[in-house]
Specification:
Layout: H1 2-40, H2 44-50, E1 51-59, E2 62-65, H3 66-75, E3 78-93, E4 96-109, E5 112-127, E6 130-140
Parallel strand pairs: 1-6
Antiparallel strand pairs: 1-2, 3-4, 4-5, 5-6
Length: about 150
């Protein structure tokens, strides 16, 4: 009987741990999707709360920190009009979450709408009760690129 109780306890513990992980993964995925909407809406107030002060943003044309990214979004220098997300993978390690989104991005840049395929890597860190974005990197890819899960 003790053997069955022990096995049952292990299964229950494993199920609880798996469920907890998936809840965190869903929370991060939702946050990542909301971020795309906030960028399209140029909602710098919400983005400012999301971005860590020292976050690094890597784009096709350069890299910079949070203050510059917020300025770019607010002024419309780059207007992230729409990010069509094709695939997402999330991995959690302690208080760090990594998100990979394969997207088709429609953006308004230098007076023209452009469309590009990217895999975007986002790194988040749990700071107190909030998740903060530390890294946001665009990697240009073909539309046949797949994210390994």
């Amino acid at each position: 009987m003790k053997k069955y109780l022990f096995v049952f306890s292990l299964i229950l513990l494993n199920t609880s741990f798996t469920f907890a992980q998936s809840v965190t993964e869903l929370e991060i995925k939702k946050l990542s999707m909301e971020k795309w909407k906030w960028m399209a809406d140029k909602d710098v107030a919400k983005l400012e709360r999301l971005f860590d002060d020292q976050a690094k943003f890597v784009h096709m044309s350069g890299s910079w920190k949070s203050d510059r990214e917020l300025e770019i979004i607010e002024t419309g220098s780059i207007w992230y009009k729409n990010a069509e997300v094709h695939d997402t993978a999330v991995e959690i390690s302690g208080n760090t979450a990594v998100v990979w989104n394969r997207i088709t991005l429609t953006a308004h840049v230098r007076g023209s709408d452009v469309e590009n395929e990217f895999t975007v890597t986002e790194v988040y860190q749990k700071q107190g009760e909030d998740w903060k974005m530390l890294v946001f990197t665009f990697s240009s890819v073909r539309d046949t690129h797949e994210i390994e899960h």
